[in-house]
Amino acid sequence: MHLIFLGPPGVGKGTQAKRICDRFDIIHLSTGEILRTEIAVQSNIGNQAKLFIDKGKLVPDNVLLDIIDNRLKNNDVQKGYLLDGFPRTIPQAEGLEKIMKELSHSLKATVSLSANEDELVQRLINRSLESGRSDDAQDIIRQRQKVFWEQTAPLLDFYRSKNLLKEVNGVGEISKITERILEVLI
Ligand code: AMP
Question: Would you say the CB of residue 35 lies under 6 angstroms from ligand 1?
């Protein structure tokens, strides 16, 4: 199974992604986590990416497409995967289509999780108290929301027009939201 999780920062994509991956025994691929690992080991990609991440901006499309192109060729993803935080722009979505076509992977669904912005900002402020993430500061949080609406939200129509979009309310108890996601996937 091949899935995409789409939604604004703080909506709980990571939490739900882990639960859905356990359920279907597929690999969780979070580009945010991949980039944070690159930053931690101070690789070239990591050093470049940090400049964007710390400002709440998107890392350039070509960097992300290279990462995904390599990662999807790996043996461990052949049983299926859930992309969390990728694609985030139309060029990334178009690039992903091409990569998946070459690998004969077919996308089952794009799950869009939603919540209102005040709820999201509050969740991120709470998360910042324990995450230690450099992009969880308040002004950067607002910037990341803005980037989502400007650059990532157009993907909703992109996948809707292909009949692949499943919209799920991301407010409520964690287990209840997981149930809602499972319902749209079955
Ligand atoms: P996340 O953990 O998904 O919230 O990602 C944290 C940050 O990593 C984002 O604010 C971006 O700066 C960067 N990032 C993660 N995924 C992507 C992507 N697909 N395209 C561009 N930048 C990304």
Answer: yes
